[in-house]
Amino acid sequence: MWWLLGTAVIAGIAEVMGWAARLWSSKNPTLDTPYLMQISTTILAPTPLVAANFIILGRLIGRLGPQYSRLSRHWYLIIFSSADAIALIVQAVGGAKASLAVRSHGDPEVGGHIMLGGIAFQMAAITVYMVLAVEFLLRFSWDRPLRRISSPKEGPTHYIDDGSKWMLFGLGLSSIAIFIRSVYRLIELIDGWTGRIITTQLYFNVLDGAMIVLAMFTLNILHPGFLLTDDNRISNNVIHTKCATDSEIALGDVKDSKVKEMASDSIVAV
Description:
The protein is mainly α. The protein has ten helices and no strands. Helix content is 77%, strand content 0%. InterPro entries: RTA1.
């Protein structure tokens, strides 16, 4: 689970920095540095967390059955991680432009519009990701694959274990929280730098901060390292069970009691 370091961990560090800067700015409202820090970090921080959700969904697809998904787990990673990276770059450029405008006592609206474009692009990517995830879950539940499996190695049978169930619940909760935050940020920037939304602290606390905290705690409690320990475990269990069943069938033809006892012990070991 090393990929969590470059996604969720970085997002958490950036969120802490952003909220520390907001506290610093509230104590020193005339300073530019903390104000610019909190603008940039709280806008950019959740983006790596979104990437973590994309990767988790890909793992679940590979675990439960890629035949039920419109995209393969690898294409999920390529498409949505690329979209996330583009959104991050656009938001960073917008944040930098707005920061420079503030430092030079200019108008940060241009930078705000660029950030708005980045957030809108990110929200569109999250929307498509959630639609495809819902389709995958429905097809899995109804056992309606989009394509046939040519080899057992391409995906496990139609079965879901407890770890996958909890991971799906955690992924859904985290994704909804991040989506709510994205909608809020989109409306906030549309309303402008002096609008009612951006100047009301309660909105930011609940619809931004609390949503990211919820997503973070969900990922910590329902952790993929605990719930998705081995993508191949289910399919291996199916193979072992089938071998044991075949052995039991063959055992019925054995007449010698000693041989049958030794074979029974072998089946138990399997």
